[in-house]
Amino acid sequence: MRWIEYIAFLSVVVALVWPVGGYLARVFEHQPTWLDPLLRPVEARLHRLMGVTLDQEMSAGVYTLSFVLFGLLGAGWLLLLLMIQQGLPGGPADHYLTTPMTADLAANTAISFATTTTWQAYGGETTLRYATDLLGLVSQNFLAGAAGLAVGIAFIRGLARENSATLGSFWVDMIRAVLWVLLPLSLAGGLVLVWQGVPLNFAAYTQAHTLEGAAQAIAQGPVAALEMIKNLGTNGGGFFNVNAAHPFENPTPLTNFLELLSIAVLPASLTATLGRMTGRPRAGWVLLGVMVALFAAGLAICVLAEAATPPQLAGLHLAGGNMEGKETRFGVGGSVLAAVVTSNGATGSYNSMHGSYQALGVLVPLVNMLLGEVIFGGLGTGLCGMIMMTLIAAFLGGLMIGRTPAYLGKRITVHETQLTILYALLTPAVVLTLTSIALATRAGQAGLVTNTGARGFTEVMFAYASSMANNGQNMAGLNADSLFYNATTAVAMLAGRFGLGALILALAGRFAAQLRLAITDGTLPNDTPQFGALVAATILLVGGLSFLPALALGPVAEALSR
């Protein structure tokens, strides 16, 4: 039964890629859409308010500066809101807010939501007021998600344009991403979630009594307002501490399926957008094929690991696989699908506790994040990561046939190669360095409150991989609400968002300035199944060379010790 669910999910994603990708291309190329009569007047007012004009385009450097400053301003606004939230009106009542919002936790949270990481070292229902959720978290989910999509579109323009000194306008792209993409989908999806039972209110927490006579507080709030945009914007921060495992965030198998689609469809559809905007649709389909093949491989490994009876319970003759940390209404099948989708999609809205997964089960989401979430990936940034790996593949393929390496007619010279290699090295440099510091210091070791050894190593590495990938999910065995982890995970978030983003835009600027090479018999084709296989092999090769020794100390060592 679970394989039917997996096939249905991938089939729906692939079926939606072409129409959604075409819609995105029309939106960002300013072609007519059915929403124009409603949204163009709103766009014009925002342009006048911000002093923006459609023909005022930006160089790669200015686009990068706008992207970084906008993200930092968003973090500053959210930090201010978090620090003054005790004075904000509305619920929940003060005695429910049991997690203190310290300065370091507030700074970490502000950076987290401004970078679409939404790493949460706290429980949402015990930490934040409703006003903070709406004015701070929801707004940043929209704005940070739109900024990521804008960067992805700018990168596609760099490949599509010739002899151009500009990549478009960051402000125009961001406004269009909010108005034409994220806002209508969030409204429609939010209504479906409310229909399925997700709360959307400002009610006080409900006091209930269990059958044993104990008192229980049932948290409520504007959950549906946060839920859909956290997935569409590849953000992932949950209203509740247990995120999508909570029945108020994800009450039914239908909402589970729809929320996972909302994570995957937009990033996957950017492959079709790339094909349309560059005039090379087959190249986009090749990248989508690589994504689907790697997704299926990871899904198979993870479900086989979790469907097996845990070794420590083998003698009890239990059926159903490893159900520890999983919701019975989703089972192993729905939980594993969510684990793979969220770790590939830069959206940490998991519906099961990855700290309870088997060693090979947790290996899959960890590897997905370490590879840069090139399978679908974050909104805009996922396609960029895949193209970066594709450029390395094109470089290697060009060397094999003795031709100047090129991708979609754009040459990969020494300068482009340097930017691509820096991009590939930044993630292992940050993740491995911070993991080493954490494991070598008392402050870092103090976070390991549950596990040590190989499992403890995995938990620390998982935290930094998640932060660097701007994903946000974690293994619950690591207590990350400390000055050390609040500071070091923030470093990884900033590097993953702005460090990688700056390299992406710099490369896009260089490609936009080039003329397109003519296709000849000696050109390495970029739109064939053979090239797709080369790209997949390059992703695995780069990932293995960067992280295999570290993985051998964590999940691999744990698996072999069972």
Q: What characteristics describe this protein?
A:
mainly alpha; two-stranded antiparallel ribbon; 2% strand; 18 helices; 562 residues; 4 strands; two-stranded antiparallel sheet; single chain; 63% helix
Compact summary:
This protein has 562 residues and is mostly helical. Helices cover 63% and strands 2% of the residues.
Describe what this molecule looks like in 3D.
With 562 residues, this protein is an all-alpha fold. It has a domain at 2-278. The chain has 18 helices and four strands. The protein has helices at residues 2-28, 36-50, 60-83, 103-114, 130-160, 170-196, 223-232, 253-278, 281-307, 331-344, 359-370, 381-401, 414-440, 442-445, 453-468, 483-513, 529-553, 555-561, and strands at 206-209, 215-218, 406-407, 410-411. The protein has a two-stranded antiparallel sheet with strand order 1-2. A hairpin with a 2-residue loop joins β3 and β4 (410-411). The longest helix is centred in the first third of the chain and has 31 residues, at 130-160.
